[in-house]
Amino acid sequence: SLYVSEYFSQSAQKLSFYSWYGNAKLFHFHVPEDTVLLRWLLQASRGKGPECTNMEITVHFRFGAPPVINPLGTRFPANATVRPSYNISITLSSAVQNTTFVNITTPAAGDWFIAAHLPEAAGRIEVKGFSTPCPYMFQADMFVLRLTEMPVLEPGVAMPQTVVSPAKPLHVKVFVPKHAAGMRFELRSCVTSEQKACAVRVVLGSITLPQSFQRIITCVGNVNCSLALDSPPWEKWLQIMVESLGAANASVSVELLASFTACRPGSTSSFLNFSSLNQSQAGPRPGSTGAAGSSALPTGEASRNVSDQRSFCLQYQPVVREDLDVVSVRYRLLNGPSVPVHSISPTLLLLNLNTGMDSGGSLVVNLLLNKTSVSLANATVVACVSAASPVLSLNATQNCSTAFFQGYPLSMSTSSAEAMLIVLYPQTDDWFLSLQLICPKGQGECNAAEAKVTVFAYLTPCFNDCGPYGQCSLLRRHGYLYAGCSCKAGWGGWSCTDDTKAQSVGAQNLATLLLTLSNLMFLPAIAVAVYRYYLVEASVYTYTMFFSTFYHACDQPGVAVMCIMDYDTLQYCDFLGSVVSIWVTILCMSRVKKILKYVLFVLGTLLIAMSLQLDRRGVWNMMGPCLFALVIMIAAWVYHGVKRRHCYPSSWKRWVFYLLPGITLAFIAISVYAFMETNENYYYTHSTWHVLVACSVAFLLPPRDKHKKPWAWSQKLTCRYQICQNDREELYAVT
């Protein structure tokens, strides 16, 4: 056999500490057909700075869809199916770089996903520029070894093959046709070159992670070996590997045979019932596609006799796939939302999820039993949702499993008429919903019975749109799109349904009140500015107080939220007002000439607005104007001191009672803002920042100019008559 090796690589990504699924870095690869060996090359590295410490990186693997992970140990939504992901840990200790290999023999062909992340985030809010986080990088490369011409085992035809040595196993493949109810594999005529007892191991199927359902049989001696498979995957190549367990130099000759049991679907039709399609919707929807094809076969009415039903192994219900948006699909039944369910053969619905772009959402299946349609009180409707092939033996074993997939069982009865299933990140494949009526005393009493089940099935990016305490975010890795929930107000979980650490409504109201009402501490600063004739500065403080109040009212998680305009606009105005307030306050303290002061006011505001548009959260957007204004203030104070030949400001009371308290409050405010804020204490530490900054402004504003008189409100705002003195000189003409 001729083997060909291929190499696939993707660019490295910077890892993040985990707080929600968006922090996990996703890698998407496609494994080609006839691959016999898959090797992952995982490379992790870190920076060389002192801030870099020992770190453990967790890497998750999954076939067919992104891995479903739960590093925080939170709860999943009710009725959600969760199977643990396969993961490994990579430790970065003294070494700057770590290289790890992961080998998988006979991997399944198709999409494979890798997700990597750092441990749980500490929750500290870091100001951009104050600290330099350590960069942790991760890169995944894929090597595959595949056969160029893998032998094809034709159904019903015995194929002789030879296993050369234990180091070189034999690989063959067989195509599973549609409507295959079962498969039987036989290995016979096993003979070794040394005329000794034959010992071989046969592996059917491919490895899929996190769970693998390969079927393995060991044949010893000259006895024929066989293996029966129920519901093999339809319209797929099934890989078979035969390994020799004998001596190293001994070859083994075998004969392989595969046969299938066909399943006859009921009441097939070669075309869609377009009249039913037009009746089920008011008008054609652009972009909707019908995915029924030859598998969308209308079932007979409830009046079909039992003898007709016995001749079929399943009853199709026509389903149309309607694409609504990205990772958003609705499945509509052409014969109405209710489907008839019998006991003779299962009712089958096809849910098409094989476009390659459907695995990034959640598949929701909701079943509702019509109690009046069930004539038997103790009867139960059993359902099974499976991928690749349907379950066709619900009445015999009630086991929701196929040859290589463990399905998801559901059941309904008159006492519990509703059942719901949520499949998180369903793997790319054809999914099937099988329903059948089961009677406790045997199937004889159910032959003439029929149950009506209403089926609602759809694919959504986020289940329940992440609820009231979450936000559904659409994530992208190259051309692949997937969705995740970002939770707030202490809620957690995959769909933000875990209330273990959730804030109460009272705590949410308290947080909103603290963050908004703390801005009222700008009122004393505004009053001081107006009293000292700093009207421009008072206007800036008023602007800052207004937008900071309503920005934090809009920024709150949970129910205590009020947005008077777009969130992004409120955030920008709040940041702009905060920086400009610091700018005008320091320039006002410098006591430069008025014309120069107002020119610097306008020019600085324009530059600050530009820098905030470039990077709103950069530390130099605040520190830059502050440092430049401080340079101007110090230069002006030095100039005044040299000119007057004594320290400026000259009054010790000004230093002790105003400047030193104001500077102290400002430094405490900066320390709280830069080093103490976390996600948990944000609402009171940031409120403290508001109070300290507003109070420092009131202390730091300089006194009014000496030639300015105090506001004489009784003289400026008067309503009484005044006796005016006429000082005009009269000129008399002398003739």
Reconstruct the topology from this structure.
Elements: E1 3-9, E2 13-14, E3 17-18, E4 25-31, E5 35-46, E6 55-63, E7 80-81, E8 86-92, E9 97-105, E10 110-120, E11 136-147, E12 159-163, E13 170-176, E14 180-192, E15 199-204, E16 215-220, E17 225-230, E18 236-244, E19 252-262, E20 265-266, H1 274-279, H2 306-310, E21 314-317, E22 319-325, E23 328-333, E24 338-341, E25 347-353, E26 362-369, E27 380-387, E28 408-413, E29 418-424, E30 429-438, E31 451-460, E32 470-477, E33 480-487, H3 505-517, H4 522-531, H5 535-555, H6 567-590, H7 594-614, H8 620-644, H9 652-676, H10 682-700, H11 713-716
Parallel strand pairs: 3-10, 7-29, 20-21, 21-25
Antiparallel strand pairs: 1-11, 2-11, 4-10, 5-9, 5-11, 6-8, 6-10, 12-19, 13-18, 14-17, 14-19, 15-16, 15-18, 22-23, 23-31, 24-31, 25-30, 26-29, 26-31, 27-28, 27-30, 32-33
Helix pairs in contact: 3-5, 3-10, 4-5, 4-10, 5-6, 6-7, 6-8, 9-10
